[in-house]
Amino acid sequence: MGTSSRSRMIATLAAVSLVAACSEGGEAGGGGGYPDRNITIVVPFSAGGPTDTVTRMIAEPMAKALGGKIVVKNVEGAGGTVGAGEVAQDKPDGYTVLMHHIGMSTAPALYKNLGYQPLEDFATVGLVTEVPMTVVARKDFPPATLTDLTAYVKANPAKVTLANAGIGAASHLCGLLFQSATGVKLQEVPYQGTGPALTDLVGGQVDFMCDQTTNTSGQISAGKVKAYAVTTPERVKSLPDVPTTTEAGLPQLQVSVWHGLYVPAGTPPDVVGKLSTALQTALADQAVIDQMAKLGTAPVAAADATPDAHRAHLEEQLTAWAKVIADAGVQAS
Ligand code: ASP
């Protein structure tokens, strides 16, 4: 698709920040010499969005556990595939790490010329969290409930705009499920991440979208956006008044956004092991647990923050999404 090709070309570094510094005299600790310089975690979406938020939550406790420094770098574009492609090409030395989400498992079915293969070009470090999505609209969008929204889009298909973070992003998948459940094709507006998409939703420039609770919780609680439903079987504790899609009459709309850390394939196993152990330490940190709970999510169990559990999940998700996407007949460039 033209838009995603353009996104690829204009992918920019939105933000680079140093999130932790805990070594003395510039030298970092850590057995076997790793890490002895800054580790970069690449986020393939905009700063301030949900993937970025989760990354920044765990970066500091991970850095502390590793006895080193972690820099978070946003490399946006094409539904997360630009940033992932950059990390796939990087040196397998443990100094470049990718935080990605469900998009790692959907991109191969969506992009003809992806340029990387999830199972061949990356080593998995561990799962991080699985985040519910919400269906949210600008405050003054007429439909009051999810049932009203369904009727409204059927009556006004050419008028309604649906924001997402590019082909293969979680918001795009959720929007696809919505369109296939309602049988309506809507005008999609792609962003480099749902951080800026949510800003435009609050500003009234787009009508509605799906996004993780890690991004929408604050705006829902503050009444800045209208929340129709959460896309999980159970309600989300921090948003007790928001019904599930099943309660709201659209049970087909189920998606939650799992996140995981990756390094380029060929990274030494002991380095992957150190990163995985540091991830487990970060996920057990009470401040991280509390921050996540406030935003409607929770860390995965320690057993899932491991390379093997993460790889098994990725394999299962690649198969599942390949079928959904083939059935939907969607393709990017
Ligand atoms: N929530 C976004 C998505 O739709 C990604 C992001 O900005 O974190 O995949």
Describe the structure.
The chain is an alpha/beta fold and 333 residues long. The protein contains twelve helices and ten strands. Strands 1, 2, 3, 4, 5, 6, 7, 8, 9 and 10 form a ten-stranded mixed beta sheet that branches. Helix 2 crosses helix 10. The longest helix has 22 residues. 54% of the residues are buried. The site of aspartic acid (ASP) has 16 residues, from helix 2, helix 7, helix 8 and strand 8. Aspartic acid binds next to helix 2, helix 7, helix 8 and strand 8.
- Kindly state the percentage of residues in helix: 40-55%
What does the largest sheet look like?
10 strands, mixed
The helix/strand class is alpha/beta
Count of helical regions: 12
Gyration radius from CA atoms, angstroms: 19 Å
Please report the distance between the alpha carbons of the first and last residues.
Answer: 5 Å
What are the secondary-structure elements, in order, as H or E?
Answer: HEEHEHEHHEHEHEHEHEEHHH
Number of strands: 10
Low-confidence stretches: 1-31
The general outline is globular
Bound molecules: aspartic acid
Strand portion, in percent?
Answer: 15-25%
- Mean pLDDT across all amino acids: 90
